[in-house]
Structures are given as C-alpha cells and as structure tokens.
Amino acid sequence: MSIPAEGTVERWAWDYVLSTALSHKLSPPPVPEAWEPAPPARRLDAPGRPPELVASTRRSKTPSVGALRDPKRRAELLHVFLHHEVQAAELMCRALLCFPDREPAFRRGLLRVALDETRHARMYDAHLRTLGAHYGAFPVRDWFWERVPSATDAVGFVAMLGVGFEGANLDHTLRFAAMFRAAGDEAGAGLQESVGEEEIPHVRFAARWLAEWTGGLDFGRWLDALPAPLTPLVMRGRPLDTARRLRAGLDADFLARLEAWEP
C-alpha cells in the first residue's frame, strides 16, 4: 500500500491514524490545502497507539450518580469519552483514505468531522485535568475500531458510525449531562451538553449521504446497510433524545421504529 504524498490532506489523515504520539492524537498539525489528484483506496486496519495508552478488553460498567460524586470515577468515565472521540477522529480519517472515489463534498465533510472530534478530545482532556487526571491515566479500549472497519463501503460506514453510533451519542450525552449535574459537576454536565450539540451536524452529515446513496433515509434501508452482526441495540440510548435526533435529520417514523426495534 502506497504512502500518501507529503503535504496532502491524505498524508495528514494517514499520519493521524498511525501516529504513536499522544500530543498528535489530541492536537494534530494544521491540515494542508492540497488533495491528491487521483488517490488509490488505502485501508488501514489498526491505529497507532501511543505508549501512554494501555490497552484493555474489559467492558467498563457505567457508574451510578452516587459513584460519580467521586472525582476519580468521573475522570475515569470522561477518559472513556475522550478515547471515543480520538477513535472517531481516526475512523473519519480512515474513511477519507478508504473511499477516494466518493464525492469530494463527502470527503471534505469527513475531514471537518475529524477536526471536530479532535477538538472534543481536547475539551475532555482539559476537564480531566481539573479532576487531577489526563489522557492516558486509565486503560483504553478500541471499541469502535473493533467494529467500524467491518463496513467495507461508504454506505455501511455512514450507517454504522454516523447515523448509528454518533446518533446514539446524542442520547448518551443527554443522559450523562443529567448524571454529572446530579453528582455536583456542573462543568462536566455542560461539557456533555456542548459535545452533544456539536454531534448533531455529524449525524446530519451521515444521514444526508445515506439518504442520497440509498434513495431516502428509510429505517429499513439503514438496517440493511449495517454490517452484521451489529444491530440497533448498540445504537440507541435510554431515553432516546428525540428532539436532537429530529434536528439531525432523522424523521419521526425513523425514530419510532428505532425505539420499538427488537431482535
């Protein structure tokens, strides 16, 4: 597999995914203006991991509001969210490299979303530091990398990561904002609310392209586009944030079927 040329957006994305520097994951360098004129498809199957990040396969249990009154437990949970943002940025860059034949507007959109995700990661890291922690203070799990590369085309990618996982993040940020507020961490609650608001355009971006490529944003077509064995069970929170999902372009019928879906 060829390495993208220096000074191109593709090389920037390549370097971000494969970097083993923690500072690069949080604050990548400025994006070049040039795009490769005719890039080949490049599939990166694993990200670079800084030595500060200790891998774990353990499934973390969501703490209760009572547990979140402990700053260390809040920091541990925020660390999970931070690593989710880094993975999202990496996977947007990976998609930019994987699908060079897709519309330029789509690829530019992937880049914009990736930059948003790195900014969210820095926001989480800043709040972690107020709690006496930092990125790398806790083990990490590459949950999204374990799943998203199974989408072998752009339709499956936007269905899974954008409409699916980022759509679920609208629900999760709503719930966790309430939990942080109940635990007495107003700044943490505000952070969740801000990230949730900024995820709305990401979901709208994915929904727009899914609709364009499949003939309309239909729940059944979305379901068909999800790579097996993934299902909507891991792509919705409780409660569903109907208001923000509607603002993201998911209509009432789609949300009703998502809410009611069972295996």
Mind explaining what this structure looks like?
This protein has 263 residues and is mainly alpha-helical. The protein has one domain. Helices cover 59% and strands 0% of the residues. It contains 10 helices and no strands. It is globular, with a radius of gyration of 18 Å. The N and C termini lie far apart (39 Å).
The overall pLDDT average reads 96
**Number of E-state strands:** 0
Indicate the percent of residues in helices: 55-70%
Structural class: mainly alpha
Uncertain segments of ≥5 residues (pLDDT<50)? none
Helix run count: 10
Distance between the termini: 39 Å
Gross geometry:
globular
Q: Write down the secondary-structure element order.
A: HHHHHHHHHH
Taking all Cα atoms into account, the compactness measure Rg is 18 Å
Give me some keywords for this one.
10 helices, mainly alpha, 263 residues
Quick summary:
The protein is an all-alpha fold and 263 residues long. The chain has ten helices and no strands.
Topology:
Elements: H1 9-18, H2 22-26, H3 65-68, H4 71-98, H5 104-130, H6 154-182, H7 186-214, H8 219-225, H9 242-247, H10 252-260
